[in-house]
Structures
1.
Amino acid sequence: MSIWGSLIGGMLGFSLGGPFGMLLGSLIGGKISRARAGAAGNFGAFAQPQQIFALSLVVLSAKLSKADGQVSKEELVAVKDKLKIPENEIDSVGKIFNKAKEESTGYEPYAQQIAQIYKNNPNVLEEVINILFYIAEADGDVSKSELNMIQRIAQIFGLNQLQFNSIKESRKNSDKLNPYIVLESNSKDDLQTIRKKYLKLSKEHHPDVLISKGVPKEVIEESKKKMRTINSAWNQIQKLKSS
């Protein structure tokens, strides 16, 4: 069954709180008490990790789509195609996307709630950032406002500058990327030090590891690309260091 299937209804059986609970509650006309709405931790207490991840992507993608002041057709198509949302689920997911896009709540409260849910799984948070870049690239260019928003979300997630730069650099074509940035290293580091970074990143971003921690299989292809980039960067550095 697709992770997108009946996303709204599927989440309602769980203990909801924070901005996500308010968002889903408003969609069905339900009333959520102030106490429940403020209990951000409740959101992740019983819900399936993959459902949380999917909902997070839809909401943050909606916020990102209007970061530069306009919602392009390409970005809307990207949310559907790149997140592999089937035609029969478009209406359900579209309701969440449109509600998140139209409401006055900013992206920060959502990012803070996601950070709390995945505080023990920073590599999953990195994958959210990776996919937000994926969405922003849909119209051929990541605008300055989109970049600033993604970077701010990364900061809220607790990711450091090296981690953010690595994700950003990994989005480039292999012939244009800086392999040291991808591996969170610099050219002055010795090969053994960089190898430790490479092994650490390879383990953290392995698709099987991410799936086990809640990244849906529908979006795991981007994780596979990240792994290929990590491997390519390591191969490049080995050649550079041996020349």
2.
Amino acid sequence: MTSKGERVRRFTRRHIANHWVMLVTFIGLVVTGMPQKYASAEWAKGIVLIIGGVERVRFVHHLLGTIMAFQLLWHVLEGFWLHLVKNRPMPMVPALADVRNFVDQVKFNLGLAKEPPSMDRYTFAEKLEYLALVWGTVLMVATGLILLYPVRWSTLFPGEWILAAKAAHGGEAVLALLSILTWHFYFVHVRHWNNAIFTGSLDADEYAEEHPLELARIRRGEETVDAGFEGWRLLVFVLVAAVLVGGVAALMVWLRGTIPGMAAFRLLRLS
């Protein structure tokens, strides 16, 4: 049983901050990206004029894209830290139970089952949306880098790859926008208003309906406890972080063509 008006803590300040960054960058990328994709449309021209011209639109789009790329890197490092060093579970990763929950949900929707499935911290629908978000971000960052430095990438790949990146970038952008306006908007705003990601807490009745297994653990006082410190876990994390951060830094240097000695090497070859 739940008390009327009771709210249960669901997200931390870290979750809320990450969501705000993602929300602002996504909206900004849509506002500055769609006018570039549909540049001949009158509404697109109007948005460009409001923002201050094509150059400013592109600058803002590139800036927000860079923020989203670094947020993706941070998310990967954060995941390694929490799972590898802290030894916490990864509740957003799909498991076999999610397949069973999906089947049971379909049976319930068709009237073949009396009760809906009891799900844990994240439902199978939320996990699917999360995977779509991660995959979409990876695709958008990768294709965005190709479009931002086409000449550099053309030294490695045929020119057709640039055109393919442009098609994939624009197509995924439209798909992401439609997904947010339909899937996410329905489950979070239409089906019932869920503001937990902004306030950090969720109505207890809604918690009992959506995530009964996790609520039961909370009621029993079971909390996630970090594993004891193990040196090898920290060492592996440091190595993984060094490879990821170093790889990103090397890629940025290569893209901008500022590798030390490269200019001199080119001059020697030309002479």
3.
Amino acid sequence: MTTKLEALRSEPPSLAREGVAFEGVGRHYSSRRGDTAALEDLDLRIGNDEVVSVVGPSGCGKSTLLELAAGLQEPDSGAVRVAGSGAPAGRLERTAYMPQRDGLLPWRSALDNAALALECGGVGRAQARRRARPLFARLGLERFERALPGELSGGMRQRVAFARTLLAGREVLLLDEPFASLDSITRAGLQEWLAAILAEEPRTVLLVTHDVEEALYLGDRVVVLSARPGRVVAEIAVELRRPRPRRDVVTDPAFSALRQRALEALAW
């Protein structure tokens, strides 16, 4: 009998066009306690318009991986490329980085916070607002354009932050635990919302999360890192076309089998 998961299967994104590449990457930090290896000999390729979720134990270098892709750090060994560019400035120009905290400016309205990405790119404030406004309706934020961040729920703040990330217009999205601080109901709703957005507007995405179910639901592929120093110990393909009806997917026995594979890899 065909399961709900099997009925949703599709071919994985092509890796022919390179989105992000890590080749033999090592990153070490020095402190009074000595040298700490965050990543060691890490190899990972992310295809154009592919969503790759990264999971692993705390301290295994997941956030470091994003900062390397964003050009905010340089590897001590190996190479990092984004859309073919290895230079830090080139990586920075091609990526939009959304950290765990939404980083909204409390004195700016929701619309002005979202438009900030355009303003930083040289667009005037009035034009930036005009370009940002249609996205608010699409993200379920209509009528909240003038609200200050302190007047928004956690889920709405995350959507404003994601609007800002999309408006940056970069080729690659780097998402660091974007829903970690939210309650389970809000988090599940935003996961489905993000899956639908990526179905409508495909992007190359590198998503870091501690939530295995979130990683599988949102990703085309889940990469499992070892304990520090982080290395790739498993890659799990999630062959689901988008959009993904969350209830059908996460309750399917085949999805449960994928989750078990990921958990076993994490225990490695």
